[in-house]
Predict the structure.
Amino acid sequence: MAVVTLGIAGGTGSGKTTVAREIVSRVGGDRVAYLDHDSYYHDLAHLPFEDRRQVNFDHPAAFDTALLCAQIIDLKAGLPVNKPVYSYKESARMAEVVPVKPAQLIVIEGILALENDALRALMDVRIYVDTDDDIRLMRRLRRDIADRGRTAEQVLGQYEATVRPMHIAFVLPSRRHADVIIPRGGRNLVAIEMVADALVRRLGKKEVV
């Protein structure tokens, strides 16, 4: 079985998760192993809660990318893996895991998916999702308030202190490693369909599901 590894990166709120899901739906979920980089944050359960909130979660060092790479290698070898489950409200890993079976297409999605040399070397296709900064900020604000238990003040403070500087330092420069740049995120159905169609052909299927 031919295995293709796809990396999808982009700034916070860029729409990369939407792009990833649209591609998966077109390729066929039964043919995909999905690994979101956000699940691989280092476990901070050993730190007091307030200290956890002071960690720079947008820096490459916040991620256990070595574990992610090891699990990709296992999947490519036909072995199942257990993806960690991370709680954004607690800033810690949960006891449960998500079993992920080997599949023809391995999708790795996250803001820094194209930043790490070792991780990038495991990818066959690399995508960067590019969206205007003001739209990304609005999406981040809505998401963190609704899903991650943050106040507007906390979200904006984090954005100014770490999210924006890390985007400039690490995320945006990784754009140069992309094979395909998709502007406007999940709204760019033309680009998504072109990528999905190319992947389906590469996986050996004539028509998109």
